[in-house]
Every structure is written in structure tokens, then in C-alpha cells.
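Supplementary Note 3. Input sequence used for the single-chain structure prediction.
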Amino acid sequence: MARAGLTVDRLVAAAADLADEVGFDQVTLSALARRFGVKDASLYSHVRNLRDLRTRMALLAGGEMIDRIAEAVAGRAGKDALAAFAGAYREYALAHPGRYAATQVRVDQDLVADAPAMRRTADITYGMLRGYGLDEPDLTDAVRLLRSSFHGFCALEASGGFGAPRDVQASWERAVDALHIALEHWPARSAPRP
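The predicted structure, written as C-alpha cells, is reproduced below.
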């Protein structure tokens, strides 16, 4: 029988909080059980295993992150939308390092298809990029460019990897400017080779 008051939503939220405190990789079912003062076995009536918990954390964090991005980009287009998107992404990544790490976990595509937050993420991201006149497969390539650029910058910033005296915010703004230029001047696809 499930312990009174213990729900999947409470467990996932507590796991996300724990991830922000100690790091995503340090979240275990045992650590979460200790937080609730229960035995590990009590959690298995709510989550199947650690992978299930981490997937749920990824979906929670992805939903939180896209909510902030959606609010930031609402009513904006072009460079203004890109800068708002990038800024909200970076703010979330730096303010919630454990949750952000959860968003980098590869999630089963069947779960993604059924997750409203993931569909919303695709809709907002692809919608912003369509403003640059992109369509497939360029949309997917542009998403990968933005994600890898934002993630790389945030990971380096969070770990203290920028040692030069240049202001990090100034570098961020220049990087967003460069991405905007790249998106405006997206290279044409070459013809397939015979």
C-alpha cells in the first residue's frame, strides 16, 4: 500500500529539488526515500525504477523550462524572439542546474510523443525558427545548432570554464547575435551527390 501523502508528483518534484541541490547524477531512490523518511521499497508503488524517476524529472524540468521560454518569446519575432528564447534558456539552466541536467537526458521517443511539454517545446522552437524562413530538414539542423550552442555555453559558464576577463554576459549577447546572423543567412542545401 502506498504511504499516505506520497504521490508520483510529490516524488518527482522532490527529486528535482534534490537534483538542484546535489546534482542530477546524485539523485537515487535511496536518497529520495531518506528525504521522505520511508524505505526504498515504498517508492516502487509510484515509480518503476531510477530510470522512470529520471524520465519523469526530465519531463517536469522540460515543462518548466518551456513555460519560461514561451513567456519570454510571446509576441516577439526574429532576433528579438531568439534573444528572449536564449535568455530564458540560460536563466533556467543556471538557476536550476539539476533540473537542467535532467533536460539533457535522452527520453524514450514514445514518451516524448505523449508529453504535452515536449510537443510544446517543439512547437515553440520550430515556430521561432520558421520566422527565419526555414523548413525541414533545415529546421532540425537549426534546432541542433541552437541547442548545442546554448548548452555548451551554459555548461562552461556553470563550471567556471570562462577564465578570460571578458564579461560573460557580453560574450553571450555576441553569441546570440552570431546565431541570428547564421539563421538569417542559412546555407542553401546542395544537390545530392549521384
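Residues 50-73 form the longest helix (24 residues). The chain has a mean pLDDT of 91.
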